[in-house]
């Protein structure tokens, strides 16, 4: 959010200054066919340009199989024929000879569901200190194999924590008839997962390698120095539970490629921000019993809610409440009250959640509620003079406030004194607050005016 806004500031400074030029270098990472399933983390034949590092990760039980061997661990030797394509699937506990993919019972609709823990990951980062990376293109040639309806979704991340749907459509094979199909725009999202073209000639007939390659072009995704870019492909099965007699999985048909640039500063980006935080503040009430949080936003797009989180010096962040977002254009004001204020330091942040389940965090704001200094009042209730006993005064004041926080009486304390008297005879009958403030420390008590 605010961090991302700094990207535009950095870019603006670079463009305005005639003497500042960001050195840019084209970079790429290519994963060729090859490798084995060693412990689920693999590095097939990988070619990278200077100044970047890259790796492939398989998670959630996915492993590499050779096309000619159903047993996990078969080596793949690139030669261009069908027997050397790389298969990615997970061992089938019902039949070790037939690999499978993640499947989840979603009856009665049987639309299936991906697992966030079962994915193929390709990542890349700039290795030189201080270098930014911008990803511009992604290419993954893939088809499904075996029986059943194989679906795929794709997400990306620039920090390895928050994975988002791609903000631009990709292209992939779409079946248009029993023997016809073509490359079309696809979103590869949970709401619109793409069917993997099954086998080379079925599901729309034979086609070119380019048409069955998931392709994203003209991207402008910035990655901060020291961080990685991640793209994950989540394959899964749709429909009723797959039988143990058939094989199913993902088949890599050729080189997988990530391409982009490295630079000394953030490059212009067209990645849309789901929301901008204009302000976020936290303030304790006069009694130190509650903390009022206020925040202001604009450009809300695809937003669902704000989850308010809190921690202390001794605890981790936990959710203490939530409020729905307006999810409309314009400027919006929100507030939330923490009625369980904590003495000492308390830290607050907002977890902004999108409609697709993705999220981001606001900056952190801090409130310090002092443990207070010794204070007593008498008589209480009173109808004329209120006597306040306090610690040895240095420099400060005594105030009387309404319960709404309106200042009604203010009197300076005498330096070196331990008590102060206030004439409150003009106040109406009711309950008030007396606030003693000395050397930046406050203590508050309630009293009753008869």
Automatic annotation (TrEMBL):
Span of the signal peptide: 1-23
Keywords of the record: Signal
InterPro entries noted in UniProt: Ig-like_fold, Secre_tail
Record domain Secretion system C-terminal sorting: where: 377-448
Name of the molecule in the record: T9SS type A sorting domain-containing protein
Source species: Pedobacter alpinus
């Amino acid at each position: 959010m605010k961090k991302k806004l700094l990207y535009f500031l950095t870019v603006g400074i670079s463009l305005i200054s005639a003497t500042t030029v960001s050195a840019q270098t084209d970079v790429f990472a290519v994963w060729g066919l090859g490798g084995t399933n060693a412990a689920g983390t693999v590095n097939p034949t990988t070619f990278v340009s200077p100044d970047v590092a890259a790796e492939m990760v398989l998670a959630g039980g996915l492993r590499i199989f050779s096309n000619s061997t159903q047993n996990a661990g078969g080596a793949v030797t690139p030669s261009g024929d069908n027997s050397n394509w790389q298969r990615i699937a997970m061992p089938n506990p019902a039949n070790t000879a037939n690999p499978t993919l993640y499947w989840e019972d979603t009856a009665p609709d049987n639309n299936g569901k991906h697992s966030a823990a079962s994915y193929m990951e390709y990542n890349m980062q700039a290795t030189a200190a201080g270098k930014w990376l911008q990803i511009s293109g992604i290419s993954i040639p893939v088809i499904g194999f075996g029986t059943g309806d194989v679906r795929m979704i794709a997400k990306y991340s620039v920090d390895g924590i928050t994975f988002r749907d791609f903000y631009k459509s990709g292209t992939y094979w779409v079946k248009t008839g029993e023997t016809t199909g073509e490359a079309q725009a696809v979103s590869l999202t949970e709401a619109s997962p793409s069917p993997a073209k099954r086998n080379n000639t079925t599901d729309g007939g034979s086609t070119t390698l380019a048409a069955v390659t998931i392709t994203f072009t003209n991207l402008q995704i910035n990655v901060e120095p020291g961080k990685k870019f991640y793209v994950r492909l989540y394959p899964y099965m749709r429909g009723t539970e797959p039988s143990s007699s058939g094989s199913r999985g993902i088949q890599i048909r050729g080189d997988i490629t990530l391409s982009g640039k490295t630079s000394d500063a953030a490059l212009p980006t067209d990645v849309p921000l789901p929301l901008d935080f204009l302000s976020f503040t936290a303030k304790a009430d006069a009694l130190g019993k509650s903390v009022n949080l206020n925040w202001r936003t604009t450009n809300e797009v695809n937003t669902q809610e704000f989850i308010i989180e809190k921690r202390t010096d001794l605890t981790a962040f936990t959710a203490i409440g939530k409020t729905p977002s307006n999810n409309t254009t314009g400027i919006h004001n929100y507030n939330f009250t923490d009625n369980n204020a904590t003495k000492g330091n308390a830290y607050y942040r907002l977890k902004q959640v999108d409609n697709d389940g993705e999220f981001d965090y606001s900056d952190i704001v801090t409130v310090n509620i002092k443990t207070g200094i010794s204070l007593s009042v008498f008589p209480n209730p009173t109808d004329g003079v209120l006597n306040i006993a306090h610690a040895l005064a240095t420099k400060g004041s005594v105030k009387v406030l309404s319960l709404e926080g309106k200042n009604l009486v203010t009197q300076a304390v005498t330096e070196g004194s331990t008590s102060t008297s206030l004439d409150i005879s003009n106040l109406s009958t009711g309950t008030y607050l007396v606030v003693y403030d000395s050397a930046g420390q406050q203590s508050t008590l309630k009293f009753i005016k008869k």
